[in-house]
Design a protein that fits this description.
The chain has about 425 residues and is an alpha/beta fold. It has 3 domains: about 170 residues, 3-Layer(aba) Sandwich (Molybdenum Cofactor Biosythetic Enzyme, Chain A), CATH 3.40.980.10; about 80 residues, Alpha-Beta Plaits, CATH 3.30.70; about 150 residues, Maf protein. The protein is built from 16 helices and 17 strands. The strands form 4 sheets. It has a 6-stranded mixed β-sheet, with helices on both faces. It has a 5-stranded mixed β-sheet with strand order 14-13-15-16-17, with helices on both faces. A hairpin with a 4-residue loop joins strand 16 and strand 17. Helix 11 packs parallel to helix 16. The longest helix has 21 residues. The two termini are about 45 Å apart.
Length: about 425
């Protein structure tokens, strides 16, 4: 079965917002056995919306549309779809009740624009929205299903997962696509591919392999299109075991987690605590750690030692160390670890100091130079890295590397 995705909104076309909805929908549809034919963005203009629907509807089985369902004058999708499907807008009592309950729960007063959102094309099937005022709509025409959803991501995602996906599974018969995501960190993509070269050459012929890199991880995605799910899962399990023998120390998890998620059970099971002392990352490592539910069980706090004054006065880094070696040095981050362990009374610590950029670099220490230390009261390991000249990327790289170094330190793996 083929599927197309359409996003509607001038804000996407001019780059004001990033289209994360299409990514989410595509992933869900692919997992359900749909082949994604194309993703298209169009402006809030009736003729453009109708033109793209006419162009693609004969070539696909499913069209998912997001955007243009809000209460303002530029939200024209609903009226356009009513015209396209030769229908008229009528008040839907069920939708109106949903809107009344939602508005009341937020402490607002119902207004005419809210009430107007309860009008839907008479010939559509309603997809209820529990987190907003814009309902979703399901149409069918010439053996193609059209689904229109609001563009607000948290509204769309819940509607798609809990309402749309069950409807699609009932309506379409698609093959199973079984995925295994192996999450790695430590090696660049090229090095990882080289290490897995022999394995990849002998990979099971039914498996489709993809390398999906980001600053926080490299995801190895193995996929099988199948009719027998159990057989596919057995094949993927066998290949996963082979990979573990080659790069086991670099695998931190499976599915869709990140390094902060991976260190959580390690610290919880060991009943150990953690703190951070951050300079160039500005608290980003602490933010990642505390994004994990239950992190209060092991994370005590962070010192954002952005200035040398804080490094010396609070973390007790000797002034002579900074004068001699600089704030971005092995000696400084080692003392930052010692200071935070003493101050915050934790079992483990992470310390980071670097030159995030774009300025501040020298020939000896160019932009991107970062020292990362991890350790406990008995042992500290500090490692130097040079990430690049883009500030925000440097923060992301340093944060992920620090978390992985901690994971490796606790598990007894070599730090790379």
């Amino acid at each position: 079965m083929k599927a197309d995705i359409i996003t509607i909104g001038d804000e996407i076309l001019i780059g004001q917002i990033t289209d994360t909805n299409s990514q989410y929908i595509a992933e869900k549809l692919n997992s359900a056995g749909f082949e994604i034919r194309q993703i298209t963005s169009v402006a809030d203009k009736k003729e453009q919306i109708i033109n793209i629907l006419n162009q693609i509807s004969e070539h696909t089985d499913l069209i998912v549309i997001t955007g243009g369902l809000g209460p303002t004058e530029d939200d024209i999708t609903k009226q356009t779809l009513a015209d396209y499907f030769k229908s008229r807008l009528v008040t839907n009592k069920e939708v109106l009740e949903d809107i009344k309950k939602f508005v009341k729960s937020k402490g607002f007063s119902l207004n005419e624009r809210n009430i107007k959102q309860s009008e839907v094309p008479e010939n559509c099937k309603i997809i209820r929205n529990k987190n907003g005022t814009a309902p979703g709509m399901w149409f069918e025409k010439n053996n193609t299903v059209f689904i229109s959803l609001p563009a607000v991501p948290f509204e769309m995602k819940e509607m798609f997962s809990f309402a749309v996906m069950p409807l699609l599974k009932d309506h379409f018969k698609t093959p199973d696509i079984v995925h295994q995501n192996i999450l790695t960190y430590g090696y660049p993509e090229s090095t990882l591919a080289e290490k897995l070269s022999d394995w990849e050459q002998n990979l099971h012929p039914e498996i489709n392999l993809a390398y999906l890199p980001s600053p926080e991880r490299i995801r190895l995605r193995m996929s099988i299109v199948c009719n027998k799910k159990e057989k596919a899962e057995d094949i993927l399990t066998g290949e996963t075991e082979k990979i573990k023998k080659i790069i086991g120390d670099s695998i931190f998890g499976y599915g869709d987690i990140f390094l902060q998620d991976a260190i959580s059970p390690i610290l919880k099971e060991a009943k150990k605590t953690l703190s951070t002392a951050e300079s160039c990352t500005g608290g980003n490592i602490a933010r990642l750690i505390t994004s994990v539910p239950g992190s209060s069980a092991y994370f005590k706090g962070s010192i954002i030692a952005y200035s040398d004054e804080i490094k010396t006065s609070i973390l007790k880094v000797p002034e002579k160390i900074i004068k001699k070696h600089g704030a971005v040095s092995k000696e400084t981050v080692e003392h930052m670890i010692k200071g935070q362990l003493e101050l915050l009374k934790t079992d483990y610590g992470i310390a980071v100091s670097g030159i995030a950029g774009p300025g501040g670099g020298t020939s000896e220490k160019p932009v991107g130079t970062t020292w990362i230390a991890v350790g406990n009261k008995d042992r500290i390991i500090a490692q130097k890295y040079t990430f690049g000249n883009r500030r925000l990327l440097n923060v992301r790289f340093a944060s992920a590397r620090a978390l992985d170094n901690l994971r490796r330190f606790i598990l007894g793996y070599d730090i790379v």
